[in-house]
């Protein structure tokens, strides 16, 4: 993790100096320290949890001509002149012919399904029909900061505080006392007790409109119940999301062995000290050897293969009952033997790998659960979550509430006798399953070994500094990703940034296409020695302005990708010929997503990341904290450190432009 010396210094840039290991450690100690703890996070809300759900705005379907126009803009920077000419011709024909019919069919379908969005069913189907393994391909991770009281950061106690807080959060959700998820643009009014009371008295069919009048924008919460008691069960052609009605237990994986631990009684969570006692019993009372055939390894393979292995396992009645115990668990906890820390670049990269994929040889994960708490030996906790059931809005809300609730007490661990011991699940495995596990371990290890990963930091420029320069941190970083890639590989490739559409009923995500024509022009200017600094500054501002417009459109449900996806699905499901525009070079190039990006920041988090979504791509997780920029990059075919160096070089150049040409 370093701020690099740019080897690409051009006109109008300055070089960045390297941090010494001591400077790096001191910087990270400050930046990963626990935030101020918010009290009363789970206090009963005046407004019922799902009060807005019935009146949420419905996801708009963009006009066909707008989508076609914006699609051509999205691919303009990615195609040669000849390819763009061909794509333009196809799009015009599509807009005039098949597109009109498909769009009319989509509008009709949407009109008949006012209880949901036009995208929801097909999006679930897309996730659940995918056959690729969950780890690396789908599941991201987030790492929580430590508890402010160091003595509370032991592996068992810290985990117990999170289990207790998570179960309290689940109870508030089920009882309807969890505060609704609302984006407040004018919190002095929309969060004021008198206004909250007014909203609570409004009928549900109009509550959203009352809140919006005070610039409080309710967000969809339909995904929230699937966070708990939920498993993605593998199927031969398509998986199934299975949610248990009630669950008083979790499953703990330790050294590849699964254990059932009861942590609640009739939905009421046990005390933190009693949960600690039960976890301590598991960790220390009886020596446990590494599992020879860790069954969790099978959750890391191709979904069809896993479904076949699961059928084989379920031939034994006791095995089936034990799998149902795992399926119905509130969530999974995975205890690791490794420590995690921020002492060096290598240590942070190692931490990222530990929580992104873990050790394939140990098989100490159950990737199918809605979410898992992964806990290092020294008490760092990460959330690794399965993606089909929901997106970042639900996970980030849970993460923030649970972190603060877990840290509220400040009480130190008190020794207590466990009133019940964890129950180990001992599966009877056939030779076929044992061989399947060996194959799964080898296959997963191969994928892990070929993935490069680098985490780095730019220490003296964060959200505060960028706002002083008058720019959006996100727009700024996206241009740095483009310029860094262009300098390193001398090409512009499709770039994906995820935007939430949770402002709408059953909204999921939309793509922000960051490799815009304006961004390409900015990169062209930066690579041309003849371009003067003032012109480069102008091009940068234009590119960031375009990115802001693309972001606003995506968040407003006026993006391009999801509309085209829905039109293609209409054709497929209606047994109609799929229009040629979807097999054209333009559509192929746009959906390669060579640079896949997502911002992963919250005050309670200190790291996050995901793997590339394309064999030749980059997975770029970035976190602009108040005073520094974090960057975690993964790739199967590219050198991640070279790319992060190139990005920080681009940051140097862009920062200089903004400081010297206001």
Total DSSP helices: 22
- What is the residue-mean pLDDT, rounded to a whole number? 93
Taking the sheet with the most strands, its summary is:
8 strands, mixed
Shape: globular
Report the structural category: alpha+beta
Distance between the amino and carboxyl termini = 30 Å
Describe the fold and architecture.
- This protein has 22 helices and 20 strands.
- It has 662 residues and is of the alpha+beta class.
- Strands 13-7-6-10-11-12-1-18 form an 8-stranded mixed sheet, with helices on both faces.
- Helix 6 crosses helix 10 (272-285) and helix 17 crosses helix 22 (640-660).
- It is globular, with a radius of gyration of 25 Å.
- The relative contact order is 0.16.
Summarize this structure briefly.
The protein is an alpha+beta fold and 662 residues long.
